[in-house]
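BUG-447 | component: ligand-complex export | severity: low

The export step for aspartic acid jobs runs without errors, but we want the raw record kept on the ticket for reference. Input record follows.
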Amino acid sequence: MLVMKFGGTSVETAEAIGRVAEIVRQRVAMRPVVVVSAMGKTTNKLLAIGHRAIAGEVAAALAGLAELRDFHLHESDGLETVTGLFDQLSSLVNGLAVIGELTPRATDALCSFGERISSLIVTALFRKRGIDAVHIDARDLIVTDKRHTQAAPVWAQTNARLAKALPDLASAHVVVMGGFIASTEEGVTTTLGRGGSDYTASIVGAGIGAQEIQIWTDVDGILTADPTILPGGYRVKVCSFAEAAELAYFGAKVLHPATVLPASEKNIPVRILNSRRSEVEGTLIVSHPPASSTPIRSIACKRNITLMNIVSSRMLMAHGFLRRIFEVFDRFETPVDMLATSEVSVSLTVDNAGWLEAIRREIETFAEVSVEENQAIICLVGENIRNSPGVSPRLFTALGGTKARMVSQGASQLNISLVVAGGDLVRAVESLHREFFRSPDPASFAF
Ligand code: ASP
Ligand code: MG
């Protein structure tokens, strides 16, 4: 069996779904299970409608809903089941307007319509093109805890349901299901977090022991540099699960960070492919890729990072300093991405600066704090870093006059990360890319 996941842009219109159908048709012999996202930007639109409704802008909410309905009915040629779902959605939106509150549970109910509708449309359009597709509701298969908007799978039950339902069905049909959506044991709709359809594909692939999990998207695969910062990077032909996970955590948009885990545990290869250029081989992610003579696999970046410097002379050599700092971050549920410490000072970065002022005030009761906004993290990722002497000197030479505010190499030696001022980001990435991909190993990179 094969799991094929198609993201929002791959199913954004009937025409795009037509391309997807041809891609799937060529692989019918491999018994594909097709996982789809909501069409285009539907999830964002649903959330905007929900927020309008609870803000008392009911007319605007209903206008947005009508537009979404017209679009889906147009693309699906007036599919009856879609009309039914929009009627339910309309009741929900009216209900939200009355209650005036969008709880996490209601958010999941609202967002779930994107994938519930898209998966029905994809099934219908496949059938119209002569593919024997059947629809299955992902919420009957993926069981999660109750952490709405960020739910985690309950593995035993999910795997049992997947193993019971899918292999038989997939032996005779192309199975189509929505990504992202799931339900609790009690049957309440949940979601796996934004971008979670990739994760669904991986959960399903691991659950049925698929031969391969394919993530079909709108880029050629993982590239050696973020194309929004440095166009013209090379395609990474093959990388490891650990490298892919690291890249996803550090901002590479191609893959949802949680995706790698279920696949790597079952050692199922993941392949990232472009639904608009299906002839390109994409990026293959496996446990142990062949050795490469290039130390770095890819350069990931995160923009709009805040750097916090904390200094305490009073706490010099005292124990408990770090604990006190992290307790504050913990209380405000704010993750810290990078960290560097010396005897008296700590520098750290945060991505989500929503609570930063409050955090700062608390830490200022026992240390001096300064904050620098608009910083960027550059992360050089590659398992080969640990076997390649001289990566750090090359890095500093390449940076030239660009100042690195912080540098860290984790114990895993899977990455070297540095913080630069936002305005230096493009120049720094260009220099690093030129240095490390001067003569990339053709076995690992396509150019
Ligand atoms: N539709 C969901 C989102 O936009 C899930 C996904 O596309 O992966 O976050
Ligand atoms: Mg996506």
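Assignee comment: Attached the raw record above. The CA atoms of residues 38 and 118 lie 5 Å apart.
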